[in-house]
């Protein structure tokens, strides 16, 4: 699976606007449907469309710090779940 950076995606979408999606995909060596997905994301999310793989899209009113804090909250929630499971495991072991 190829991963493309934000600048490449933005330039590819811009080129597809100028010469068409099929020609741009051929010239860049990108699958047509991949380029179409990038175009769709740009339409839906505007400037925050191409921020990277696996990350939520930033809305216009969120700062980078807010996005980072939301990510950190998610990590902490997952860590708490792991700790709860471990506590339950060891509590069962002490009862015996």
UniProtKB/TrEMBL annotation:
Pfam families (UniProt xref): HTH_Tnp_1 (PF01527)
SUPFAM superfamilies reported in the protein's UniProt record: Homeodomain-like
Taxonomic superkingdom: Bacteria
InterPro entries reported for this sequence: Homeodomain-like_sf, Transposase_8
Protein name in the entry: Transposase
Organism lineage: Bacteria, Bacillati, Bacillota, Bacilli, Bacillales
